[in-house]
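Sample pair:
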Amino acid sequence: MALIKAKKEGWQRIKIESQNKDLVKRINSLDCMNNSFTTILEDILILSSLFSICSFSFVNKIGNDISTKIAQYALTCDQDIVWKDNFPLWLSDDAQLDLRHLP
């Protein structure tokens, strides 16, 4: 859904971070065969080709509390929300905590 939404918003370059190391590895190696999410991987690869730049990277759960909070929040939303210029205040503390874990 994120790739579709980003494309509809007109984004040309996108970076996707995931806590699923196996998924990121399979996407980056184009290894879609013989696994339980072949169809999903194929869809991701097709959608990612629509961007001028689309990268996928693994991000450790430690120091990434903000993405977990955003994901949990997204599950409660009944409409699409895009934050382009303004960062929600309720995420500020988590953002500061995550910054402490950067190298």
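The longest helix spans residues 65-76.
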